[in-house]
Design goal:
By secondary structure, the chain is mainly β. The protein starts with a strand and ends with a strand. The chain is built from no helices and 10 strands.
């Protein structure tokens, strides 16, 4: 059974930084590319970052380019999202999943709130 457990969210001031983690189980982690998504209030879910299975390829939404960095540690079954220069519009619930079709069921996500 595929499980993805996100953590690391919290309240941070504008301009601040956070690193999110997502620990996976139930599948061979190193074989799958992965995504980070976010659900912003009153908007749909947006994919913010992608990483290939070997970390050779990454891609970012225009809204986060230059501020967010996705990485993974296949030995720990964990994918990370380092976020810096946070803005109020980055507020939302962040999720990770495998880059597969059909998509995995969503985990509980981790809340990121950017506010003074």
């Amino acid at each position: 059974q595929v499980q993805l457990v996100e953590s690391g969210g919290g309240l941070v001031q504008p301009g601040g930084s956070l690193t999110l983690s997502c620990v996976a189980s139930g599948f061979i982690f190193s074989r799958y590319p992965l995504n980070w998504w976010r659900q912003v209030p009153d908007k749909g879910r947006e994919r913010v970052a992608f990483i290939s299975s070997t970390s050779e390829g990454t891609d970012y939404a225009d809204s986060v380019k230059g501020r967010f960095t996705i990485s993974r540690d296949n030995s720990k079954n964990t994918v990370y999202l380092q976020m810096s220069g946070l803005k109020s519009e980055d507020t939302g619930v962040y999720y990770c999943n495998r880059n597969v079709v059909p998509p995995d069921n969503w985990g509980q996500g981790t809340q990121v709130t950017v506010s003074v």
